Amino acid sequence: xxxxxxxxxxxxxxxxxxxxxxxxxxxxxxxxxxxxxxxxxxxxxxxxxxxxxxxxxxxxxxxxxxxxxxxxxxxxxxxxxxxxxxxxxxxxxxxxxxxxxxxxxxxxxxxxxxxxxxxxxxxxxxxxxxxxxxxxxxxxxxxxxxxxxxxxxxxxxxxxxxxxxxxxxxxxxxxxxxxxxxxxxxxxxxxxxxxxxxxxxxxxxxxxxxxxxxxxxxxxxxxxxxxxxxxxxxxxxxxxxxxxxxxxxxxxxxxxxxxxxxxxxxxxxxxxxxxxxxxxxxxxxxxxxxxxxxxxxxxxxxxxxxxxxxxxxxxxxxxx
Length: 320
Ligand SMILES: Nc1ncnc2c1ncn2[C@@H]1O[C@H](COP(=O)(O)OP(=O)(O)OP(=O)(O)O)[C@@H](O)[C@H]1O
Known about the structure:
The chain has helices at 59-66, 89-94, 112-118, 126-137, 139-143, 154-167, 184-199, 211-217, 235-239, 242-252, 256-274, 280-290; strands at residues 20-27, 36-43, 48-52, 72-79, 82-83, 97-100, 172-176, 203-207, 220-225, 228-234. It is of the alpha/beta class. The protein has a single domain (20-292), classed as P-loop containing nucleotide triphosphate hydrolases (Rossmann fold).
């Protein structure tokens, strides 16, 4: 069971039927070993919900369980009230769930455009309908649509992966550490992009190591510890909660003051973007884009190789 009481579990969540509801999940990779030990989460329409916690807490495992990539042994998962426990990923995509993995998230030998086509391979006619909207959201990709994804930087690949998931017009988008392996400026861009996607009407669950940034952009967040819910609540409240700071935030920020200063810029940029004015981040972006410095990770050189191993048990799943 969770270490939080039932009434605290989804503190700050709107009322009504959640879009996505994970209830008391037990799940794991190896027989007899549960990584998730009673995890719960709700996502309501329009929300941006974060999952944070220490290394190995089970954040990515929870996200994979939500997308049918890790077998759920106990507990239930519903989408708009419909049971989707252990449905296959392709079934979930058809039902409006998108997933962006942390690593190995593009087809490197395919062009940007072909990568986007892969996002709608089950419904190819959708390509023509959606591609312009996705390129509008990521204009940098539109300009380079015939370039192979393998030649892109880490941040650009992240955009391709998000764009591919958005091709299917998901109502729920599951993002696994979109800032992983990126420089600080590119990380901020990834958070802005996430917020922008959410503001465009997509409900988002985001797993993040960068807990402060995550809490800044999220409506609510869940702190996981050892496969269980430890704390939850509105992002801003958790940021100022002494227990959360002591246990998770204090150790994650080497230089809290510098973090805070930079954080103010991100919030400023988010707010400026929402009011249609330019924020500091645009100026930073211009500087970065004009430099020749390559950015960041390569599929062949993942920052956290253990995460490159996807998947779960090969137990039988539902077929639809
Ligand atoms: N494919 C796998 N096979 C077996 N064990 C795995 C697999 N993936 C993850 N694990 C184990 O599950 C546990 C939780 O890992 P998970 O990646 O979910 O944690 P996390 O909270 O996302 O960590 P991090 O912040 O370091 O990314 C770890 O002990 C990890 O070793």
